[in-house]
Amino acid sequence: MPITISLDSLTTDPAARRAFNAISLAIAKSKKIVIVSGAGISCSCGIPDFRSSDGLYKLVKDKYPDTFLKGRDLFDSSLFRDPQSTSLFYTFISNLKRSIDAAKPSPTHRFIKTLDTKGKLLRSYTQNIDGLEEQCGLAGSSSEEVRSGGKGKGKLKTREVRNVQLHGDIHRVRCMLCSADLVCGEEHMEKFLEGEAPDCPECCARSEARVARSARPLKVGSLRPAIVLYDEPHPLGEDIGTIQTADINRKPDLLVIMGTSLKVHGFKKLVKDFARVVHSHRETPLTPLPTPSPEKPGKKATKAKKESWAGKVVFVNKTAPGSEWEGIIDYWVEADTDSWSEKTLEEWKKMRPADWEIQKTLVGDADNSFKVVKDVAANKGKGKKQNLGRENIPPTKSQASKQTMAAARSLPSPPSSPSKRRPDSCHYSDSECSPSKVRVVTTNNAEFEERGLLFGDNTNKDGGKDLEDELDLGKPVPPKKTRGRPRTKKVEGEEVPLKRATSRRKQVYVELPAL
């Protein structure tokens, strides 16, 4: 069974206090936290949940007793088969959206944003359709910022999605024919309030274009709220599956489940998949080593190197988890999510005050005075990279150019490459190579004068005198005799050249006819 913690008994129950401190330390030290939330985190914002005594299911059943036997029937995909239930659904969603538009984020939403700012949030998964996480600065899977404009399979920029909306977004509408996704405007709300579905503008544009060229008009689809009902596939199901697989491969070290009763089948599977990976970080029991060798006697069993604070699954809700979660959920915090979030942040600041130190950013003015631009929390610690893109202000263009020029002056000039050296220079220059490879070149002009070379320094001396008078060219040397076959013979005292031997081949002459 999970360890139960009540916030009211922290001052009187030492065991509950130790367990709460362990959770707070795990949140402060974890680097890849997965948050899974439900409608309970938005109750303090004035938005009702689904299954409580004053939730949406009870409200629907009391308001339409003759149409729906259960409140869940209003959120089932089969309601589109009946025009009356469809009209009631549109009216109900219109009123629900107006109450959501007036809501503000709760302390729990801001707590999730704090984890993201500190670089500890791996991803947030929510069942909510209110989009309050996006108001805090967490880009949702239905946001325009994360839409991919390419022609590939993926419709989302998965790296930029910080909050995955598992049940859609009430602030958007979707065409039931062409699946066009649009922002829900005031004109759509007025139609929904009347129990009618507005026409899709993209379908209308295509149909009008065909009529303009005398073609048959196309069917025009109707818009509906872009929320996912029971027994209905998610339009972004493939992208959400890709995001979940990527997060599981990154090995999250802490799982926090908040404000949900864990009743939806697909949602339960997602929680169990993450819990299985998170539990792999827990300390394992003592593992005995093989039989010690005679050289090293007395070696004891050792523990696998695991962090004691990692590998926890925390469930924060007023209602207890079911029996099927035994062995999966480690801690059950019996409290509302806002109280637990605020209390956890207080303990975090006491345990690790260095994580909350304020770093002031100063900017110089024209009169050489400085002013504080922004106070940010410094992210200190060994081996931690500061998240400069989220907490620090980027320098202006002028500051960036000055910094670049100063850095360029301080750097030494790079050595020249071999391709840029002079052509007459060797690969190893005389100033850079080793002493054994230095070239020694000597010019002795006396040798040129003594030997009387043609290109010596005395070539053009004395106005160009005849060089034969001063240069001793020596006597001509007769050519050496060759040892080959003699070419001549003496006949009666005279040299007579020898005749070459005729070829032994027979010569055949053929008379050719005259042309």
TrEMBL record:
Record-annotated Deacetylase sirtuin-type domain positions: 12-357
Active site residues per record: 167 (proton acceptor)
InterPro entries (alphabetical): DHS-like_NAD/FAD-binding_dom (IPR029035), NAD-dep_sirtuin_deacylases (IPR050134), Sirtuin (IPR003000), Sirtuin_cat_small_dom_sf (IPR026591), Ssirtuin_cat_dom (IPR026590)
Cell compartment(s), UniProt: Mitochondrion
Keywords: Metal-binding, Mitochondrion, NAD, Transferase, Zinc
Segments of skewed composition (Basic residues): 478-488
UniProt-listed PROSITE patterns: SIRTUIN
Domain of life: Eukaryota
GO MF assignments: histone deacetylase activity, NAD-dependent; metal ion binding; NAD+ binding
Family: Belongs to the sirtuin family. Class I subfamily.
Listed name of the protein: DHS-like NAD/FAD-binding domain-containing protein
